[in-house]
Amino acid sequence: DTGVSQDPRHKITKRGQNVTFRCDPISEHNRLYWYRQTLGQGPEFLTYFQNEAQLEKSRLLSDRFSAERPKGSFSTLEIQRTEQGDSAMYLCASTKLAGGSYNEQFFGPGTRLTVL
Amino acid sequence: GESVGLHLPTLSVQEGDNSIINCAYSNSASDYFIWYKQESGKGPQFIIDIRSNMDKRQGQRVTVLLNKTVKHLSLQIAATQPGDSAVYFCAENIGTQKLVFGQGTRLTINP
Description:
The structure holds two protein chains of two kinds. Chain A is mainly β. Chain A contains no helices and eleven strands. The mean pLDDT of chain A is 93. Chain B contains no helices and eleven strands. By secondary structure, chain B is mostly beta strands. In chain B, the strands form two sheets. In chain B, strands 2, 4, 5, 9, 10 and 11 form a six-stranded mixed sheet that branches. In chain B, strands 1-3-8-7-6 form a five-stranded antiparallel sheet, with no helix packed on it. Chains A and B meet through β4, β5, β9 and β10 of A and β4, β5, β9 and β10 of B.
């Protein structure tokens, strides 16, 4: 499978614990995005990387959240001191920037986080 | 502000009929509009997009219409099939390719 992959697919944790999610984008895609999706809502943008540089962060991304893409390939999203309000589906998407103003974003299956 | 919304949260149609899903947007600076399909437990899947300087684009069984005058976007699915059952989101691309999604419409196909 050459699509975007995410790990784990499901994570259940207790309030106050730290969690880390991983995203492997499509090979050679230089842009990687993180979105959060709550039940019944559309995905909301969190942050994105171009290669290893984090270029934009949403105000939704509190200082408990940190994302990295150290080698410009896979990315991790860490949530520290989880709260029940963090329960959501965390989606990763990637695209290959190839000129123009828009390039299709390919989404992974998501990681569903439940904070008890 | 940056917001994309949908008129109807649910839509139920008979198999074989055509479906029309609507979307309203508010940001005139959006340069692309995209429709995504999301099945249960999966990530959004690209269906079709349309550039802001176009008013219609057709794909396989799908047509997207864009009316910039009233800031309205629609997705038409011809001859709906059971596999079309899903939640459909419209999204707009604003400059940095940060997508802004609407709430979604759940499409149910009745046999």
